[in-house]
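Friendly challenge for the regulars: who can give me the structure tokens for this chain first? No prize, just bragging rights.
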Amino acid sequence: MKGTIRDRPIGRTAVFGAANRGSSPLPGTMTRTAIILAAGEGSRMKSPLAKPLHEVCGMSMILHVIHSLELITPGATVVVVGHQAERVTAHVEEKAPAWANIRFATQIQQNGTGDAASVGLGAISDLSSAHTVLILAADTPLLQASTIHKLISTHESSGNAATLLTSIASDPTGYGRIVRNSHHNVQAIVEHRDATPDQLALNEINTGIYAFNKDLLQIALGNITTNNSQSEYYLTDVVALLVQDGHTVGAVSAPETETAGVNDPSQLAQAERTMRARADKAP
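First reply, four minutes later:
Bragging rights claimed.
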């Protein structure tokens, strides 16, 4: 499929899962989907291997993320690919569990996380009743299924337009800051490079993991712009747009050791140590 949102391309979609690997719900019956953003190059890894394919404790990061979905029974899991798309697609198609109902969508141009989310939504356009969309990154291998279940359960029981997974960071440098209003609801996410000095002093950070009402997300994505320092479509801008339209955005907190992303070899090594320590403590 091809299409546009606000006159920009939203990518090419390839669908796998229903016919090839497992069951897929019929249109009109689905309640939850997941979109995993896996299109980036990951140049800081300094490796010819696509970032999502780097392993932590013998399993690729993207497979760890897929397995974190096991308690929410996604009707479809869309993997948005770009850099080394064929290699990432082949790996996930071979290794992912059938219950994940994997689909793939290609982000042709790297125009930011908002554009990637639009590409992912294009892959579930046939599933109009999917009312909860979970968006997460492919480089967060330490996520636990219980945390994702809590995020989705909180989102659906609260009636929020969006619910974010946040963390309190010991060093928030580089992360988007969570700005809250007087009712303690989320008001906005401000990227580090765009933040004021007061906002930089905040230590509650955006982890890049969100639960959205699908219809409201789609409308908001059509209204975001590239008016920022990177000239990209930020998924984080959706939050402020939802708030401006009178919707409530909530948050669920998780430890930063669980939500940490992997962007370079040292962070990959730290993720390995953390996961091994977690396994050693398991009963």
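The chain has one domain: 4-278. The longest helix spans residues 265-281. Your move, everyone else.
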